[in-house]
Structure formats: structure tokens, C-alpha cells
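Assemble and predict.
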Amino acid sequence: MSISVQHEDFDLSTEVAALRAGQPGVGAVVAFVGLVRDMNEGSGVSEMALEHYPGMTEKALAAIVHEARQRWDILGSRIIHRVGALQPCDQIVLVAVSSAHRGEAFAACEFIMDYLKTRAPFWKREVTPDGARWVDARETDDSAAARWARPES
Amino acid sequence: MSISVQHEDFDLSTEVAALRAGQPGVGAVVAFVGLVRDMNEGSGVSEMALEHYPGMTEKALAAIVHEARQRWDILGSRIIHRVGALQPCDQIVLVAVSSAHRGEAFAACEFIMDYLKTRAPFWKREVTPDGARWVDARETDDSAAARWARPES
Amino acid sequence: MIKVLYFAGLREALGTAAEELALPPGVADVGGLRAHLAGRGGDWEKLATTKNLRFAVNQDMARADTPVTEGDEVAFFPPVTGG
Amino acid sequence: MIKVLYFAGLREALGTAAEELALPPGVADVGGLRAHLAGRGGDWEKLATTKNLRFAVNQDMARADTPVTEGDEVAFFPPVTGG
């Protein structure tokens, strides 16, 4: 259940291998990688900067993983979220989940991403031909997270 | 929309990099990796062999990808399914999907896996302390695929 | 002539992976072919008794009422278990 | 004393990332603190007028009625956009 907030890039194969290491009961790994696109809301993006709230970021991500573990029978998870300056095509985030069967890994990975998008304190600022701007939150992110709401929570 | 049925292993990072190459509009990649577990149905598994129906396999996978493209706005996909002799912890299958936003990539990747599990002609044979046995199809695979059924299809 | 293929546990049970045969008189669909082959008796009766047997015609998933005509490739196999 | 943090566009608009201040008399929750800070006038009014402002108390997501007490760390920020 490892979580990193870092400037450095990451290697998908290396991270998934570490997630599986010593766990021959893992039958499924689902990995999500988020990337900087060269276009957003109709404008070209030449650069991106990711700000975060140190301390709260790690706490929020740990809480999300904790909730995922309570909901699904998963064997492991790995989250890496980069901060600082990024370029188009750069990797921003990795969420990888391992489980015995695929259904749990798919659900938990998407759940973690949907909650991360609405609950983890990261903010994107992008540079476009019209200047720099803070990225607006997407309403679809709220509705994606709301899908997972439970009556008791 | 590349599909391979092969004996050789694959590298996740290499495949995802190729899937994204030259597509700076990709904001999300979801990758599923299926693995040989050392236990199945309560018995230790020391070895596995994957049989397939050459020709139909590729055709069935292409049809599944075609349907995924019609349902979701995805930018690319990569399927690798291994055949032949495999050991516990070996990679069996990769399904990776790229898209602008994560919702499409998650849905299309899980759809392809659920259909692959019920429509692509592969059969697993595993060696256990009680001898070799053909793996039984799981009912949960049928119900997973049925979730995607559409009234018109 | 038609080509008939058998896979996985069914292939092992029949001791046959593939055969070519003249389209038997009166056989017009997969169900008819299945009954004809099972009529050989012995191990071939497994074609009739196997639960959840699956079929393909010309490498597309098929049903018992899928037509079979001269030149077709017909396959019989257990439910798939890849992935 | 309490610690107050501002992030992203709000930090830029206020020209302030963090400050420490004595818990103002009468302020018992996040909403009260927000009104108090907005009462400074000028750019600080943005704290009142910003739509969808989000809050955290001691690094947990909070609501306007979440209590604020001596020693707390309170943060104000726009909706998050990571991932």
C-alpha cells in the first residue's frame, strides 16, 4: 500500500513488478497512468505545473486506499503522483492495484482515481498561448466520484 | 489497435510507450495484466499450458476491439495473449487502452477483458499435485460479460 | 467437404484435433452435425453429452441453428478459459 | 494561535501562502474563520466571493461547520484538479 508524492518520473514495469513481488497469488493487476495532454479545453498546452498540499496529500491518498481496501478484496496498491513542472506527454500519476481476480482490481483502481480526482489536494496550472491558467475542476469528476457513494457513508 | 497471440513474454512499459507514441492527446492509459497464480480452486499450480484456436483467436479479439471502439471514444488499444507453457507468476495477457479521459479507458479495458474471457478461444490446462486438469470456466465470467449486453445487440 | 476441429478437453477425450469429411446428407446446421458425429458411438457420444459445449463456424462463435454448408470450418470446444 | 494556508489560484490572488494568527474571538468554525478573513477587505473579500471554495482542518477535508480550535491548521483552496 505504498504512496509517493514526488518530482521524479516513474517506470510502469518496475512499479508493477514491485507491487507483485513475493505475491504469487496475484492473478490480476490494473494500472492507470495519467498523462499531460498537449491540448486542454481547446488550447494548446506547452507546460504544466502541479502544486500540492504537503502532508495532506499523503494523508488523503492513504485514506482513499484504506477505503478501497475495505470495499474490495485487493492484495496490494501503488500510488505515485508527481508534482512540479511537467511537459506534454509526461506521466502525472500512477494508480496500480493487484488482486486475485480482475473485477476487484478494476473497481478499486477506478475508485481510487475517482476519489483522488476530487479529494486529494493537487492543483494543475497550465501554460497556453493565451498565458498561464489554473485548470478548472471538471463536473464529470464530481459525478464520477459520486457513483461510489454509499448510503451509510 | 494491435493484437498479438504469442509465446514470448512482454514488457508493460514498452507496450504502453508504443501505444502512446505520437499521440500527445492521450491523457489516460488503463492497462490490465493477467498472471498465473500459484493456487487455483484450492490446489497448488506448478505449471500451466494455454491452448488456442489459431485464426479464430485473432478474429475474435479484433471483433471485441471493434465493438469497444464503437462504444467508447478511445484512441488506441493493445492486446497481447500468450500461449504455450507458463509458470506461476508469468504474465498471461495484456489489455491496454488509451483515451483522452480516464472513464473511457477504464470502461473499454474492462469490457475487452470481460469479452475476451468469454468469447476468445483460449483454454487453460494446469498441473497440480493431483495431476493435470483443464480449468473450468467461471460463472462469474459469464455474469461479468453480461453486464455489457445491450438491448439491441 | 467440411473441416471439423476439436479443442482442449474435448480434443483429448476424442483423441482427434481435426478431420475433414463430406457434409453428411441431411446435415444443415451445427446441431445436426453434432448429432451426426455423436452417432458414431463410443467416445464420440461425448459430443452429445458434454454440458455447455460451444461451437464456431468459420471462426465465429455459432449456435446450434447456425447453418453449415460445403467448405465450412466447424469447431467444437468447451467454454473458453483464457485471459 | 492557528495556522492558515492558501493554495493554487487563491494563494496567488491573496499573495499569501500561509500565516499564523490568534484564533479570533467569536470564531468557532471554518465558516466563521472564512468570514473573519474576508472582513479584512480588498483581495481578502475573494475568500467570501469565490465559488466552490474548499476547506481542510488539520489536513482533512472540512465543511463550513467544521469546528476550528486553538492549534488547528486550516486550509482554503479551489476544487482540486490533480490526477
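The first helix of chain B runs from residue 12 to 20.
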